[in-house]
Amino acid sequence: MQPEDSPDSRPSSVPPPTAPPIRITGYTTEELARHSVFNELNIFPGRPNEIIQVDWRCGQCGYNLRGTMTGARCPECGSVELFRPPPPGEVSYATWYEERKRRASGAKVLIMLVGVILAGGPFAVVGAFLSNIIPTFLGPIVIGPATEEIMKICLVLLIVETRPYLVRREVEITIAAIAGALGFAVIENMLYLNMYVTNPTIGLAIWRWSICTTLHVVCSIIASRGVVAVWRATEEQKRAPTLQLMYGPLLLAIITHGAYNAIVTLMGIAGIDF
Fold first, then answer.
1. Dihedral through CA 133, CA 181, CA 255, CA 223, nearest 10?
2. Residue 52 in 3-state DSSP?
3. 91 with 24: CB under 8 angstroms?
4. Can you give the residue range of the structural domain that contains 115?
5. How many domains in the chain?
6. Is 251 a residue whose pLDDT tops 90?
7. What does residue 220 show for φ and ψ, rounded to 5 degrees?
8. Is this model's pTM higher than 0.90 or not?
9. What is the full DSSP assignment across 93-115?
10. I need a surface site. Which of 43, 120, 152, 204 has the fewest CB within 10 A?
11. What is the largest CA-CA distance in the chain?
12. Does residue 262 sit within a domain?
């Protein structure tokens, strides 16, 4: 006969001890969060549907699916959301993102924004120089515009891809993109008018500081819409950034820049000078 206080004599209704809450800290835990099974598609066989009790956005239209059943069609667009919120306390990208966002101080966010604003232009200039190492007739029309537009938004895109919780509002991305474009345009114009061209005319200087600078700013604003789309999807859906969302606006910015360079090249061939 077993003693009264032996483990086997405990009532079966006594719940087991609960595990301590998960803390999302450190590089290793971040990697675990990014590769958590709870980030995967909702395709496990026999997994019952349940009511979504947290804010959870439709991946197609962004509608808040809170209060609807997983696996059901979105009331707004009719698509079926293939992801579901992770169970409470489980490690996932969503829990990592919310924890890091909660812990990010305003000072850290401000330092990030100022750093990207100050470094964006010079960083893009370095990239532009590297793109000219191998000269080609397609350089001014294809390679140059592609390199410059990518490099001008590269730093803010890096933040959105790796530390999206440091961005609080969409306008911060646009400001960083405009600052990068202005920084790049200023450095490029100074080099062009003082090193590349001997005795530039007033007309050329006005053209560079007005039209060329405006071109860089407009193209960066176009490209930044793609970065905003990546960040917005991460913020609303609490899933790892999807860089495919930026390809369309970035391509449009490259085409716009390349078209301008092609027009200027043709004007030079036709003998039209400033």
1. 120
2. coil
3. yes
4. 105-269
5. 1
6. yes
7. -70, -35
8. no
9. HHHHHHHHHHH--HHHHHHHHHH
10. 43
11. 108
12. yes
